[in-house]
Specification:
Keywords: Membrane, Transmembrane, Transmembrane helix. About 75% of the residues lie in helices and about 5% in strands. By secondary structure, the chain is mostly helical. Strand 1 and strand 2 form a beta hairpin.
């Protein structure tokens, strides 16, 4: 399968993911509790996704698949959603959105390093077989180019932050960069293609609810109820990032779930989120325009994305199809 469509879906997902960094930072600047920012997103996602899945008449299928492995659903949903989004919201208390979005691009490398933990389908003369994945070193090198571009984009502003803020803003995002692709890939294995992106996101959201309920109870006990502004912004995070972005990204990864090199290329598209975040903070949070060094970093990201897409193609996709001879009358 061509990698172009999954990459385009990944870029669209990155656009909506940018709302997470922009709105979470906005809520933090207005005094919102990060615990509410984290839990409210998933509370709002439930009714939105339930409506979509019911309209598609897939609720029964989703429930039956979840009943087969309930413990795996609970655990990997906690890993993929809980240990992904809670650290991001915590980091928003210590880092601006642009720095979080830049740090988040470590997931490009994280996803590649996780490859040996999974199996992929390989076609042989005796039919398809499952083999343990190998780290896609060519794609990983392209990921390093992307990461270098991200570093250059953030270098000038990062030097103005204290060491403590850098660590508290970096380490939680580093954890999230591993848990998000890990939980996503493990749930793809559990579902084995039987659920589409909407059903899988809803299932993981429902399975992660116990964690979000615990967070919200603690937030209520220690800080009271969230403000109307935080409720509104959390709803838009749930809609844009939790529904649109997550479904688009899961759809993209579903299309290439049996090819780890292409899967790495799709996950690399999330580097574009930093560009969208920069634009959003300039427009809505009055951030200054990037310097020339930052624009050079943006160019490196674009080059790295293009090269990553190229080296992730299979040899078959790089060869030109032979022309068929015209039929003789």
């Amino acid at each position: 399968m061509s990698v172009v469509r999954p990459i385009l879906l990944g870029i669209c997902a990155a656009f909506f993911f940018a709302f997470t960094f922009i709105l979470n930072r906005s809520m933090e600047l207005s005094g919102g509790n990060w615990l509410w920012s984290a839990s409210l997103r998933y509370f709002f996602m439930v009714p939105l996704l339930v409506i979509i899945v019911i309209v598609r008449k897939k609720m029964g299928t989703m429930i039956s698949v979840m009943k087969e492995h309930p413990i795996q659903w609970l655990w990997w949903s906690f890993v993929g959603f809980g240990l992904f989004y809670a650290p991001l919201c915590f980091a928003a208390a210590y880092s601006p959105g642009w720095l979080m979005a830049g740090t988040w691009q470590i997931t490009i490398i994280s996803g590649s390093l996780l490859v040996p933990l999974f199996y992929e389908t390989v076609q042989t003369v005796n039919g398809p077989i499952k083999v343990r994945g190998k780290i896609p070193y060519k794609g990983l090198m392209m990921s390093l180019i992307i990461l270098l571009g991200i570093v250059l984009m953030q270098l000038e502003r990062a030097t103005s932050l204290s060491t403590l803020d850098m660590l508290l803003g970096f380490l939680p995002v580093l954890i999230a960069s591993f848990t998000y692709p890990l939980g996503n890939r493990k749930m793809m294995e559990v579902c084995n293609g039987r659920l589409d992106a909407y059903e899988r996101v809803l299932g993981m959201t429902l399975a992660s609810l116990p964690f979000w309920i615990l967070l919200s109870v603690y937030a209520w006990a220690t800080d009271g109820l969230p403000s109307s502004s935080q409720l509104t912004q959390s709803f838009f995070v749930a809609l844009c990032s939790g529904v649109f972005a997550t479904v688009l990204f899961f759809k993209a990864t579903d299309l290439v779930r049996d090819d780890m090199s292409k899967l790495g290329a799709v996950e690399a598209t999330q580097s574009i989120a930093v560009l969208f975040t920069l634009a959003g903070e300039v427009l809505f949070l009055s951030m200054s325009l990037p310097s020339m060094i930052s624009w050079f970093g943006i160019a490196l990201v674009m080059v790295g994305m293009t090269l990553h897409s190229y080296v992730s193609r299979s040899p078959q996709s790089l060869s030109m199809p032979k022309k068929k001879k015209p039929l003789e009358l």
